[in-house]
Amino acid sequence: MESTTLALMERIFLTVFPLVAIVSVGYFYAKKRHTDMSTANAINIDVFVPALIFSVLSAKSFDLPKYEMLAIGAAIIVLGSGLLLFPVCKLLKISPKTFLPPMMFSNSGNLGLPLAVLAFGEAALPAAVVLFLVENLLHFTVGLYILDHKTNPLNVLKMPMILATIAGLVWSGFHLSVPPAVATFIEMLGQISIPLMLFALGVRMTSVDFSNWKIGLWGAILCPLSGLAIALALQPLLNLEPLHFTYLVLFGALPPAVLNYMVSERYQQEPHQVASIVLLGNMGSLIFIPATLFFVL
Predict the structure, then answer these.
(1) Model pTM score
(2) Which of 17, 97, 130, 255 can pair with 285 through a Cys bridge, CB separation 3.0 to 4.6 Å?
(3) Which residues of 5-40 are buried (b: 16+ CB within 10 A; e: fewer)?
(4) What are the backbone angles phi and psi of residue 24, rounded to the nearest 5°?
(5) Rounded to whole angstroms, how far apart are CA atoms 50 and 165?
(6) Residues 274, 287, 134: CA angle, nearest 5 degrees
(7) Looking at residue 212, what DSSP letter applies?
């Protein structure tokens, strides 16, 4: 029993440590030297992440119907978290436009993708990409609509990530093959995205203060708890296979996405409050993620 526990703890450490290490490198590098990640982030969103998505979805092994219920579960967690925590906004005396998006839209890219691969191997990448796509699609439609009701949801069709998704699904659906040299080229581009996301997360953390630490602490607790509660409640309804249920639980435990802070800045929706929620939420994941891994592994 003791050896099993030690083996589990070692696996959790080997999963979490590389993530924390890369984020830390980004944080300390940016602390020592001014680092503007705006261009790198734009390239990542426009080039590297779409390459990763297309590489995964266009692979012969990708079977879309296999992930249908997992995608539905992810959508329910995202939307359900907003509905579940809406009454809390009144208790915390904070605007729903400020508090709910970070509770709904989690760090499924920067943290979710590498976490799934490190915890379950490369075989988990297609499922992690599906979860990431669901979260991002809802973020750029429902999330932006929450902040501005005049937002046109069709604008999402112009995003490189969505175009890569459509192209990848067409390739997979029609069983088209990508020439090996081209496939390797696209795969190598995609491999840049995950470590760059983690490094950028560390850099972003240097620009956030703790002035709104109380609301940030509430967010750090409620974000994963709401996601986990919904994921556990969904299993009797969705009847996911064990491995997919594990992915969904881990998705529910993820902290708020850094993108919430960038969007709040763009729409001037109390960015300092959102920044504290995002920062403390990601710091809190150092507790919630290992605890969740201990539960699911």
Answers:
(1) 0.86
(2) 255
(3) eeeeeeebeebbebbeebbeebbeebeeeebebeeb
(4) -65, -40
(5) 8
(6) 55
(7) T
DSSP 8-state secondary structure symbol assigned to residue 46: I
Residue 6 has a pLDDT of: 77
- Distance (Å) of CA 243 to CA 134, 193, 296: 18, 25, 9
- CATH fold, domain 2-296, is Na+/H+ antiporter like fold (1.20.1530)
The predicted pLDDT at position 172 comes to 83
Q: For the chain, which ranges sit under pLDDT 70?
A: 1-5, 60-61, 208-210
Q: Are 259 and 253 in contact (CB under 8 A)?
A: no
Q: Which two tokens stand for residue 142?
A: 């429902």
pLDDT given for residue 186 in this prediction: 95
Classify burial at 246, counting beta carbons within 10 Å of its beta carbon; exposed 0-12, middle 13-18, buried 19 or more: buried
CA angle 90–93–95, rounded 5-degree value: 80
Rounded to whole angstroms, the Cα distance separating 282 from 255 reads: 5
The pLDDT assigned to 153 comes to 75
